[in-house]
Amino acid sequence: MRRTRALLYQTETLKLELLNMPVHQLGLQIEDTIFAQAIPVVKEELRRAGITQLEPIFYISTGYGCIAGQPLVALGFYDLHPLLKELNEEFRGWRYSDADIFDLLRHECGHAFCYSYKLYRRKDFRHLFDVRGHFFNTYPEKDDYNYNPWSRSYVNPNGDHYAQKHPDEDFAETFTVWLTPRSGWRKTYQRYPTALKKLRYTDRLVKEIGGSPPLIETDPGWMMEPYEQVKLTVAEFMNAKTAHYEALATGYIDPDLREIFRAEPRLTSRRALFRDYMRADMLIKEQKMSILSLVSYWIGVDTVVVIDLLDKLTSRARTLNLWVERAQRDKKLPEIITYVSALCSNYKHKGAYL
């Protein structure tokens, strides 16, 4: 990578951009992530195991979970981008491997199966999984839970004794072990009589109802904290300190762009928006060649120094959803040219844009 691009797209810069972005503006998609591979695989595992009518809905959220009473499976947004994964590990202390994510999906599908078929209302289920009182209202509010590390009544695939937190998790963990291909659960838990009984029960239960339609109608309106509604920045969400990255970033221009341009105006219609305003990235693209010729000539730098900077301005203005009033268009051009000239002059004399 040539030096200009290395400066503008340096890792510390990219991380600082992510940290200061509101979560809902991250533009995340399941495509081209581990989930694009894992979700179809786990769905196929369900079908091969005999669960043919269950169709969980997966959506991006602030963490993993399954909405109580609905087959709506939330995925942690921090696992949909490699740098977000690194930041999550740095500031929150954990990072899921690909294998972990497959197990998380199986676990959440266990919840989805339980809720869709209202297993918590069955007497045999409540007796075997020791359900006492209201299934959902008795769920602990905190992650802290007491467990017996020597108990042989629960599966414990990850060594965290999570099945002992609540009957809901007991079934989901049991389901995960049962669903995982080649888990060898019959042999693994042959000396854990109660845990084995739960696994065999799950096996029988799927044979009994796995081909039947769910007892509930899926309602996407129950989704909790879809990432598109989270206004916190990534740094606020992760309780992250940004000073380290601010000191090291060599291509962080977001504050300058926000100063030059403006956020999307709140107008009554899209027609009014595009009539009175234009996207900042489109203005830069439109004027790219004239800015390039002016700056490269007067500052005396190679054209790639200007081109790479203009490309960076364009991509960040688009990502930040910045706009300019059409009536101010001609006044903004000298401001953009001056800004680009200043950064290119820095590069000429100091070897760095900032």
**Strand segment tally:** 6
Structural class: mainly alpha
How far apart lie the N and C ends? 19 Å
Describe the largest sheet.
3 strands, mixed
> β content, as a range?
5-15%
Quickly count the helices: 17
**Shape call:** elongated
CATH architecture of the largest domain: 3-Layer(aba) Sandwich
The CATH topology name of the largest domain reads Collagenase (Catalytic Domain)
Order of helices and strands: HHHEEEHHHHHHHHHEHEHHHEH
Range of helix content: 40-55%
Number of domains: 2
Average of pLDDT: 96
Radius of gyration: 27 Å
Low-pLDDT residue spans = none
Q: What is the CATH C-level name of the largest domain?
A: Alpha Beta
Trace the largest sheet across and list its strands.
1-3-2
List its salient traits.
354 residues, mainly alpha, Collagenase (Catalytic Domain), 17 helices
Describe this structure in words.
The chain is mostly helical and 354 residues long. The chain has two domains: 3-11 and 242-350, no CATH class; 22-228, Collagenase (Catalytic Domain) (3-Layer(aba) Sandwich). Helices cover 52% and strands 6% of the residues. It is built from 17 helices and six strands. Strand 2 (65-66) and strand 3 (72-76) form a beta hairpin. Helix 15 (288-300) packs across helix 16 (303-319) and helix 15 crosses helix 17 (329-350). The radius of gyration is 27 Å and the shape is elongated. The model has no long low-confidence stretch (mean pLDDT 96).
